[in-house]
Amino acid sequence: MRGHRFIQFNPHENDKSRFEQLLDLFMQLLTYTNGDASEALDWLNQLDRKYQLTNDEYGMGDFIDDLKQNGYLQENPMDGSFKITGKSEQTIRKKSLEEIFGKLKKTQQGNHQTFKPGQGDEQNSDTRPFQFGDMLEQIDFTESIRNAQINHGVDSFSMKEDDLQIRETDFKTQTSTVLMIDISHSMILYGEDRITPAKKVAMALSELITTKYPKDTLDIVVFGNDAWSIEIKDLPYLQVGPYHTNTVAGLELAMDILRRRKNPNKQIFMITDGKPTCLKIGGRYYKNSFGLDRKVVNRCINLAAQCKKLKIPITTFMIASDPYLQKFVQEFTETNHGKAFFASLDKLGAFIFKDFESGKRRTVY
Question: CA 273, CA 299: separation in Å to the nearest integer?
Fold first, then answer.
């Protein structure tokens, strides 16, 4: 037995260029600095001094010049400040997608598969007799010829309408998704950064939908004391504010958005780390951060029931494990007939990815 044969390993054989290595790190830092290019470059300089990321042949000045020449960075000629470009925003989303979901190639159509047969591009193993209105390309000629031979014999071969078999195809459904992100102050409390993983997931999901499911829609709703929509391009700049958690406002806005969508499949993903603590009643805010206030909770439960009537499932990703919060999430989820995940920050992306992909196989009537 010859066994294993080892050859000399060259650690630099498949290395990226120095610019590409620094670019990967710079894009990661931009997520943590909420898109602040100057702060990200400052952090990169500190890392360079500590870990010697650059050398005499390629320094930080060269990297900044390459960022500007390649369209990643803009410099204000008046004060010398830096600002990232649209190309950088898209690159951050792509990096998040690669990190969480892996590389996915763009397709020409949304391909949410369901178990309901119809016109589409993915064939399944089922066949049925020809019906008026079926198209020529749907005919399974192998099965049809076989039927003709059985029904009419080989010597007097002929094919009639009754011999024709149709190969079923799975049609593609389009999905409208609203991703709700909690930006209350608790998302950065207790020394744990929860908003950055939430942003990464949002950027990865947006890139996934726009590349693999371009006919789908994704709306981003952030909620603190109030709720408002943000554009996908604004995600790198998203940051936590001194807010309470007005889950009701977020759900109401998400429902309003989905009512205007014509897709039959609609869903809400909600990323939060705490309990609802705020309501807006008229022109004033009702706030209670202590325990679970039934006045606030009941409004959330009522909206969960309304979403159920509208056939809008809510999937809650709770990045906290307090027992009383789990009880609230369980009541909320049971009312909506949705799903809930108590996800750790490092597994958040995998949870959302699996749930989104499994939604492709949901049949909506």
Answer: 18
User: Which candidate, 181, 176, 315, places its Cα nearest to that of 235?
Assistant: 181
Token match 């609802």: residue?
A: 276
Q: Backbone phi, then psi, for 162, in 5-degree steps?
A: -70, -20
Q: Measure the CA–CA gap between 84 and 50, rounded to whole angstroms.
A: 25
Polymer length in residues for the chain: 365
pLDDT for 227-261, tens place per residue?
Answer: 999 999 999 999 999 999 999 999 999 999 999 99
Q: What is the 3-state secondary structure (H, E, C) of 202-261?
A: HHHHHHHHHHHCCCCEEEEEEECCCEEEECHHHHHHCCCCCCCCCHHHHHHHHHHHHHCC
- E strand spans, 86-139: 112-129
Is-contact 236 84, C-beta < 8 A? yes
Non-local (6+) Cβ contacts of 73 within 8 A are 37, 64, 67, 82, 83, 84, 85, 88
What are the distances in angstroms from CA 295 to CA 233, 279, 292?
36, 9, 9
Q: How far apart are CA 336 and CA 356, in angstroms?
A: 17
CA distance 42 to 285: 39
Instruction: Give 317's strand partners.
Output: 271, 341
> H helices within 6-121, ranges in order?
18-32, 37-51, 60-69, 86-100
**Residues 1-28 pLDDT 10s:** 455 554 554 545 457 899 999 999 999 9
